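Before the break, one more example. Copy the sequence into your notebook; we will annotate it together after we see the structure.
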Amino acid sequence: IHNLCEANGVIVAVTYALPENNSQGVEVLKQIWRSTNNGASWTLAWDGGKGQFNHFHSVVYHQATGRWIADTGDSETYHRHTFTSTDDGQTWHEWWTEFMPPGPNQSSPTGQVTCFRDVGDPQRLFLGSDGNQRVGWFDLATWRAGTLMDRQFTNRGPQWYVWDLSRFDDVWYASMASSAGGQETPVVLASSDLSRWVVCGRLTPDQNTYLTFGYCAGRFNDALHYIVAKEGGHLLHARVPVVKVAEVNGVCVSPA
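Here is what the structure looks like once it is written out:
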């Protein structure tokens, strides 16, 4: 399981498998699972079998529209998919089947989302993406997506992307992950408007192995707690203090 979301007494979880497993003849599961009893038991809601795409990246429930969204990633553009459900995750279909006749290439409109966030907008979700190094939005009325700033975080290398997007006390936090080693280290950035960002947490450089800021597990004792992945499959823990953001002819970050 790579990502899950809970809403209205329903938990929906999506699977993730590395593409190299498929080349070794291992079954790569591309599935959406659903639970209505707090995870005690699960029902398979959608099964994609092999092919089509590599794996799922994210799933979310949008309260205002009553719609579930599941997004895939790490495939060529024409193999990326966005699935949706309007019956609390019981059945799923591709986004374009509701709004246009079938065509030869109706790929995902989102750009490979790593995390969705519902913040109460009547028709938009906010998102982090590993396709375009961005924080952006996805409109469920028009099925269009866009960035909130042109090519965000351009100081980072081409293998960097937004892994997690979280908000606490009206401050947004974006974790930057990497599949590249070297001096450019994974960071957590803070913003009050999703457009202007400053670094508020950083991992120590390591020339030999890479570290990846993963999802934020939550806030506890005035700090955010992140899952950190180390090359070789080891999981670590990182603590990043919460911050206050103030504008002083730009963006200023100070301890909370």
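The chain is about 0% helix and 50% strand. Residues 159 and 179 are 6 Å apart (CA to CA). Try to locate both features in your own notes.
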